[in-house]
Amino acid sequence: xxxxxxxxxxxxxxxxxxxxxxxxxxxxxxxxxxxxxxxxxxxxxxxxxxxxxxxxxxxxxxxxxxxxxxxxxxxxxxxxxxxxxxxxxxxxxxxxxxxxxxxxxxxxxxxxxxxx
Length: 116
Description:
This protein has no helices and eleven strands.
């Protein structure tokens, strides 16, 4: 059974850092484009960062450029998101996502709260 499990969320003060991790199981991530999405309270889910299957291409939403870094380790079937200089507007549930052709998987999400 294909599964994505996120970890690493929590409460952090503005300006702080967190690293999110996503562990895949039940399928091989080698061909999948993987993404981090987030959903703030009362808002729609939005893409935050994405990384190509070989790790050679990444993209970010404008609001996190220069602060967040997405990476992956296909051998360990993991996806990571390093987040620095966090802001209150980064608060939300962060979801791991994998997509290849018609195959698509979502994790259950991990809560990130940025507050003093």
